[in-house]
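Reminder to self: tokens first, then the designed residues, so the page reads top to bottom the way the pipeline ran.
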């Protein structure tokens, strides 16, 4: 993406996450923030019950690394003129502001296209840019988790209530990746045809794509799967279930198609005799005797601790995984070997801040990026690059149009 300029007028994580991915890929992403408040998310002091350090802020670093920040008050005519000056040099305009705010502050598509007809205009929204709820806002907790059916599917019916979303900005980050992919396709299309398109991604459509197989099943049959309570299973395959270890850990077996894996699996589970037991030696009998198979496997795994199974099963041919927390993944040998974590300079000058690499890796190369900018950090630099004289910059500052 080197040579591509993205002008981002967006807040929170959905949409800024797209800018972060494009910055990871080499684009020059200019983030516009309010000259006094900055991105509203900078003011968040709590995430899921955990106190946040404003100088080491996960909800700022994750969706904003690699960008430059320019402070512009887009509600003023002078600020809008500065925005248009940047837009003239940009390939992509990226926003998640509501339609009414885009119109009021004159950065909807007709305003931006008036100064740059060749710009790709990308919108992120809660529910889409068409229909009766076009003007309704939302977050991933409402649009991605609650309304979409994702939260319902992941909440066991026996709970008698609804599980809250346990990962902040979950749908936001997935949706941001979708927007980045759409922008890439739009840039490719423009390169081939000369046409600049507008594109939309909503949190609702992101959730439905992520849950697409279940959504399709629901439309076909009127029924979909739901998560089950621990210790219960409807699986007809004993090689597909969660099993508790002696010290309370969990091992997930996920051998979807047991053909060719049966003997090796029983041997690794310490039950080699079952490989010759007619109840469990072939796929059909294994399925027919699933309940007994689950009982025998549960007893075997419960006899030894989590770390034993974590090491012992590494040579098993079938598919399995240790049930890990997000904290444990941060030290996972395989995750680190694939450069899934990158260190950036911390805004407070302390130890490096660790952020997550985007899911796409090119040529096996680790990501090189910079920390998220402080609010309005690059205002003067960017405007001088555009050719604004210092006297003009000072005048705009005096009027409060820029920071």
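Designed residues (403 positions):
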């Amino acid at each position: 993406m080197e040579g591509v300029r993205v002008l981002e007028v967006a807040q929170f994580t959905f949409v800024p996450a797209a800018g972060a991915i494009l910055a990871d890929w080499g684009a020059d992403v200019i983030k516009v923030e309010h000259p006094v408040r900055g991105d509203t998310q900078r003011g968040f002091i709590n995430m899921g019950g955990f106190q946040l350090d404003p100088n080491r802020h996960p909800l700022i670093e994750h969706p904003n690394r690699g960008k430059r920040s320019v402070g512009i008050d887009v509600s003023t005519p002078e600020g809008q003129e500065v925005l248009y000056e940047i837009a003239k040099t940009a390939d992509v305009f990226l926003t998640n502001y509501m339609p009414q705010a885009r119109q009021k502050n004159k950065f909807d598509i007709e305003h931006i296209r008036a100064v740059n007809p060749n710009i790709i205009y990308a919108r992120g929204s809660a529910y889409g840019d068409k229909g009766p709820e076009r003007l309704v806002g939302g977050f991933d907790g409402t649009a991605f988790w609650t309304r979409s059916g994702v939260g319902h599917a992941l909440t066991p019916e026996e709970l008698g209530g609804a599980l809250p979303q346990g990962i902040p900005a979950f749908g936001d980050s997935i949706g941001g990746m979708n927007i980045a992919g759409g922008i890439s396709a739009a840039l490719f299309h423009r390169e081939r045809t000369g046409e600049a398109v507008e594109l939309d991604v909503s949190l609702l459509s992101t959730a439905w794509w992520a849950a697409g197989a279940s959504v399709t099943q629901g439309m076909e049959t009127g029924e979909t799967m739901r998560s089950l309570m621990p210790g219960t299973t409807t699986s007809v395959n004993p090689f597909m279930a969660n099993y508790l270890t002696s010290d309370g850990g969990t091992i997930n077996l996920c051998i979807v198609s047991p053909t060719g894996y049966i003997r090796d699996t029983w041997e690794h589970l310490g039950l080699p005799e079952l490989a010759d037991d007619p109840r469990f030696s072939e796929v059909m009998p294994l399925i027919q005797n699933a309940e007994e198979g689950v009982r025998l496997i549960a007893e075997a795994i419960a006899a030894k601790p989590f770390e034993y199974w974590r090491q012992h099963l590494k040579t098993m041919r079938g598919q399995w995984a240790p049930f890990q927390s997000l904290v444990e993944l941060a030290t996972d040998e395989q995750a680190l070997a694939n450069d899934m974590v990158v260190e950036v300079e911390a805004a407070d000058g302390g130890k490096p801040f660790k952020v997550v690499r985007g899911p796409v890796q090119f040529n096996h190369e680790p990501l090189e990026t910079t920390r998220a900018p402080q609010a309005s950090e690059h205002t003067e630099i960017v405007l001088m690059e555009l050719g604004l004289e210092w006297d003009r910059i000072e005048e705009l500052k005096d009027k409060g149009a820029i920071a």
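The chain has 18 helices and 13 strands.
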